[in-house]
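Hi all, posting the design record for the shared folder.

TITLE: backbone redesign
STEP: 1 of 1
STRUCTURE INPUT:
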C-alpha cells in the first residue's frame, strides 16, 4: 500500500499538506542542512529538499515529500535567526524592501525524482525601530527563514505579495497538489 510521507517537522507544512490530504505521515528528516554551503537560492532549496527527502527510509511505491524555504534579500540568503540581534538585522533589511521567498519541493516515488521551486515576492512596509523591537521580542522569528512568518504577527508588515501565499508559509500546495494528483492516478 502506498503511503505519503512528509519529511518535515514544520507544523505549518503539516497544516498545509492536510489541505490536500489527511492521509499522510510525518517523518522529520535528520539531514544536517549546514552540510550544504550553496549560496545560489534556487540551487540551495533544490539540494536541501532532495537531501531531506532522500534521508527517509520508505518503500519504493511510497511518496516522500521533502522541502526547504529560504528568504533571499539584496543578494543574501536569510536563514533562521539564532538570536535577537540576528532577527533585528533581518527585519531591518526587509523593512521597506521587496524580497523573495523561494521554496524547493522534492517528491520521491518509485525511484524517480520530481522537483520544483516556487518564488513569491513579498514587499514589507517601512518599519519603525519600535515595531522591529516588539516583533523580535516575541517567539515568532526564531524558527522561520528570514525571521518572520506571514501567517503570524508579521502579516502586519506586508504591503503586498506577488505569487503564492502558501509558498511564503512554507509549502506551495497548489503546485504540489497538481503533482500529487498525477502520481496517484
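Okay, here is what came back for every position:
SEQUENCE:
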Amino acid at each position: 500500500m502506498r503511503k505519503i510521507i512528509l519529511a518535515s517537522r514544520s507544523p505549518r507544512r503539516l497544516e498545509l499538506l492536510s489541505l490536500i490530504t489527511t492521509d499522510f505521515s510525518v517523518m522529520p528528516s535528520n539531514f544536517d542542512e549546514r552540510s550544504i554551503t550553496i549560496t545560489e537560492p534556487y540551487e540551495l532549496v533544490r539540494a536541501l529538499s532532495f537531501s531531506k527527502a532522500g534521508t527517509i527510509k520508505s518503500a519504493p511505491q511510497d511518496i516522500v515529500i521533502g522541502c526547504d524555504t529560504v528568504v533571499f534579500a539584496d543578494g543574501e540568503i536569510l536563514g533562521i535567526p539564532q538570536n535577537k540581534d540576528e532577527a533585528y538585522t533581518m527585519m531591518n533589511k526587509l523593512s521597506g524592501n521587496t524580497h523573495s521567498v523561494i521554496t524547493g519541493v522534492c517528491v520521491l516515488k518509485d525511484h524517480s525524482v520530481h522537483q520544483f521551486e516556487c518564488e513569491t515576492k513579498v514587499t514589507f512596509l517601512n518599519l519603525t525601530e519600535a515595531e522591529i523591537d516588539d516583533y523580535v521580542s516575541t517567539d515568532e522569528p526564531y524558527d522561520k527563514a528570514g525571521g518572520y512568518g506571514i501567517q503570524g504577527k508579521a502579516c502586519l508588515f506586508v504591503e503586498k505579495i506577488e505569487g503564492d501565499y502558501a509558498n511564503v508559509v512554507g509549502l506551495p500546495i497548489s503546485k504540489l497538489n497538481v503533482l500529487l494528483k498525477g502520481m496517484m492516478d
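COMMENT: The radius of gyration is 17 Å.
Let me know if anyone wants the other runs.
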